[in-house]
Sequence to fold (510 residues):
Amino acid sequence: MSASERPRNSAKPPAADPLIGRLLAEKFKIVSLIARGGMGKVYKAEQAPLGRACAIKVLTPPDASATEDEFHKRFFLEASIGAKLTHPNTVTIFDYGKTDDGIYFIAMEFLEGKTLARVLKEEGPFGEERTTHVARQVCRSLREAHALGVIHRDLKPANVYLVGHGDENDVVKVLDFGLVKNVESETEDLTQTGLFMGSPKYMSPEQIRGEHCDGRTDVYALGVMMYEMLTGKVPYDKAKQVETLLAHVNEKLPEMRDKKPDLQISEHLETVVLRCLAKNPDERFNGMAEVLESLKLTGSGSATGTRELEALRTSASFTPQPSPLPPSGSIPAAATTSITPAPPSSGKKWIPIVVGGLAVAAAAAVFLGRSPTPAPPTASASETKPAVQPVPTPTSAPAVVEAPAAAAKVEPPTVSLETDPSGARVRDEQKSILCDKTPCKLAVPAAGLTVIIENDGYTDQKLKLAANDPPHTVKLTKAAAAMPAKPAAPKPTATATATVPPGGYHNDPY
Fold:
């Protein structure tokens, strides 16, 4: 029978997976295939003799023997570190190893839920409350990892699982800590051969340039995720991944309302996201603990939240969004050069990825073609500062009148505070220390500020401050001496030791 005479539906059925039904490490029986990707497959398995359901991730090493040895070392180093992570918002690793026939596997808890990427695709953008709920849990997971020296380096919605637990929804489980990623997968369009750390849509500028990465690299990726949760889109998503990488390094961050015009978001959360996405790592939060504390204040409306917002807005990392475009529709040069990345040194790799010659040439032409020092923008009417002339002319442009008003609200008003005796601590009602030792000056928002004054041996005093108050001097009252306690009969030793709590467990895993 010729090829033209064969039935068109005679395609061979897919070959049976040889791992299904197999017992790995004499205790994990493979039940079914859950998912596949560029680096291997994930199976559902049953752990004997416990009968516990678990997930088995089987990794495929590279074909080249020279690369396999490096893969072997990286796998066992990072799998052993990942097994030490115990936070409830991190997936639990039960076991890992290599079989006699060269199968690398990681056994972890079996999760019934959906990835954040799938939820966003099916349900669309999140509101502010749901976004911060998910982001806070991601912070807690990575806070523990960073404390152990583990940087995720590939944080993205596909590596964040949302599961249900009793009456709780959106319980976060962060997956895949520190494993080498192959971007040849269903969600990525890069087709060149090679191993690549991270996913282009969520990578930080320093990671793209091949520079030093630390916990702030994950902070940037979390900022991209929050941006996507709120708007339904990532900041940079170009036709080619090389262009996406260049955009993270060079382009100004698109305003979130350009992605979602009807976005409802508090100024505080917007500022947190912008600071996470600063191109310079030094202008981001120092770590996940700081991000978490700021996210806790979102929507609080407290004086602490107001001061936190002012601190974020006045930090170097916060770049205000540009004013509406001029009639020509062009963006002023100053708006496009607010954060200029340092040009790559000749001794560093810029993008650690194997790409075709044309892609490398195009990337180098775009990146190296930028002038290390941007040319100064053409002098505008606002730069001539006619607003400071003694007699403003009727032809003054509106932008000239608005410029002084924008600069007038940089610093909040302060109130001087002294105590008798001096040296007292001052905190707010949320127990945040505002002043270690009086006398001092306190920044007071327009809504006012209530403070608690503390000094050892003196009674605490509460004071309400207004933004326009004159200097305050507070007379402290000595605390009453404590009544002497009646001598108690000595208790037996057995009774005293019984008060020690058994074990050594922490009541709060966070």
Remarks:
- Residues 23-109 form a domain with the Phosphorylase Kinase; domain 1 fold (CATH 3.30.200.20).
- Confidence is low (pLDDT under 50) at residues 179-195, 301-305, 316-410, 492-510.
- The first helix runs from residue 65 to 82.
- DSSP finds 14 helices and 16 strands in the chain.
